[in-house]
Write a structure and sequence with these properties.
By secondary structure, the chain is mostly helical. It contains five helices and no strands.
């Protein structure tokens, strides 16, 4: 998420506003603190980034695995 934001020149606050996800949630998602994000959060990110939901879910699962937590 952070990489997409930086490439597209969105601040954390601007992306939060674009996606409808709170700035705190964006922060947690980028810092791997939100290991189990809600589906509506993933859908909002999918819509804001114009990325298929399947890809967002796959990336969230990979993030969980990299954090050492089962999917």
């Amino acid at each position: 998420l952070r990489q997409w934001r930086k490439i597209n020149r969105y601040s954390m606050g601007a992306f939060a506003e674009l996606s409808g996800v709170s700035k705190a949630q964006v922060f947690e998602l980028e810092r791997i603190a939100a290991i189990n994000p809600r589906l509506d959060t993933l859908m909002a990110i999918s819509k804001a980034t114009k990325t298929p939901i399947e890809q967002i879910v796959r990336l969230a699962a990979l993030q969980r695995i990299s954090a050492g937590r089962p999917t």
